[in-house]
Amino acid sequence: MNPVDDLIRLRERVAAKCRDTGQEHLLERIDTIPANGSKYHYLRTIDEIDLESLKAKFEAAVSAEKHDASKEIVPYTGKVGSASDEALLAKSYRAGIEALGAGSVACVLLAGGQGTRLGHDAPKGTYDIGLPSGASLFQLVLQRIMKLRELAKLHGGTSASIPLYIMTSPMNDDVTKQYMYQHDFFGLPPSDVRFFCQGTLPCVTNEGLVIQESVKSLAFAPDGNGGIYPALLKTWNIDDMEKRGIKHVHVFAIDNALVSPADPAFIGYCINENADVGNKVIKRASPDEKVGMVAETVDGKPVIIEYTEATPAVREASKHASICNHFYTLDFLREKAIPGAEGLYHVARKKIPYWDSRTGKVVQPATSNGIKLESFIFDVFPLSDAMAVWEVSREGDFAPVKNANAEGAADTPDIARRMISERSRAWLAAAGTELFGDTESDLCEILPGTSYGGEGLGEYHGKRVKCPFKM
Known about the structure:
8-stranded mixed β-sheet, 3 domains, alpha/beta
């Protein structure tokens, strides 16, 4: 095919798309773009965008923004299972470890973020929070899965496979893969680790016009953690799960240093409750804690509502905080979440640099000038017919790593490290170990290879262990 003719046809097709969707401004300076490949690449970028779908997403999101949905949200009234109920915990654990042993459980790790707020110029998962082992957040997750594989086999499991699907973003996909290969996947079989990239959407003005970041490029932004649903489908990972015999999927975020991947008790509770969706939660510290809350619609559908969007009555009555830790059946993902997530987008008004066609320069706006369309992972929860809520302790399950260490700062590496240290000491104490020395030390660590959840420490019963320790 003649390259010139190909470029002409591409330009005509893109011009028609822009004309039909009111985006003609994207081609106003097309003739100023060099013909040495930049023009073709720019036109291909526009051609690959579903501008009709983008318009529909924008209109739906703006309409939803104007609608005060908070008045239709009431406190959650459904059943909540608790890990503090020892009999229920044991029953749930048995069901979960059986599912793991049968090879029917997969993990999806949300790892698209950078460590910018931590002062870490790399994927957040590569961050070392300062444990004695020097383990990164990625290492903690993968080695916990390795330990769980052993436990499932010890409980009579016939399969040791717990596949891990890692959702990256365009900004960190290559580096994340390189990091994993450099560290040999921390012991997991490479065939059990699959990467897929979160999607992006063009940024738009308040009127819905696509923003140019230069004469030959558009402004894009990640589509939110709710982008997991279309991304799983587009990358064939839903099909891969089905081929592997996966029935249950555990989804969680990389920035929780205490996360228990493929948590047997959580998974088992959801299975026993015949749930299609599960939400692991912690008790809210106070009615004023600024966290997403478990609530429901007036017709009884489960939702997560942000603190800023909840009415005072809901903030006061809602007892549980959502921690981005979810269970799904594969059937729910395929049949409800993926098709249902298509139109569920929110408006995020941001300061977005843009190219001014009149001056030919990039403008850094001082105030919000545009919109990033985002979807949230919990947007599909109202599609559930049976959601299970599983309450765990904050101390044992939730140590978010979001902000750099600073006096008075929350969700820091220092706090997460201390929580891991305190949990390690608590596990040994529960095993009947006498701790001595600096029992307030922040340098105590039980490695994932030693124990997944406090089990397997019987050899320390009746012994004295000096703090600090690493074992």
